[in-house]
Design a protein that fits this description.
By secondary structure, the chain is mainly alpha-helical. It is 48% helix and 0% strand.
Length: 80
């Protein structure tokens, strides 16, 4: 297991918010970052690639596996 990320933060502008940025909360954020940062970076790279494809003339399209939902006979209730 890799070492946990050390997260630091400036003091909150209002002392009543200090419990929100407790050391446990910061440790939790550090753990989330350690666990998910590689995947977050992959997704951001995929987003940049997709953006480049679209800017080069690519088209948006629906996923084939959602065709049944799109072509189904369904309705939603009228708004109140």
């Amino acid at each position: 297991m890799s070492a946990a990320l050390n997260v630091t933060a400036d003091p909150p502008p209002d002392e009543s918010l200090a419990d929100i940025l407790s050391s446990d909360a910061l440790a939790f954020v550090g753990e989330l970052h350690r666990r998910f940062e590689p995947r977050r970076q992959e997704l951001l790279a995929a987003r940049r690639d997709r953006d480049a494809e679209l800017r080069a003339g690519g088209a948006l399209d629906f996923l084939p596996e959602t065709r049944e939902v799109r072509e189904g006979d369904w309705r939603v209730p009228e708004p109140p």
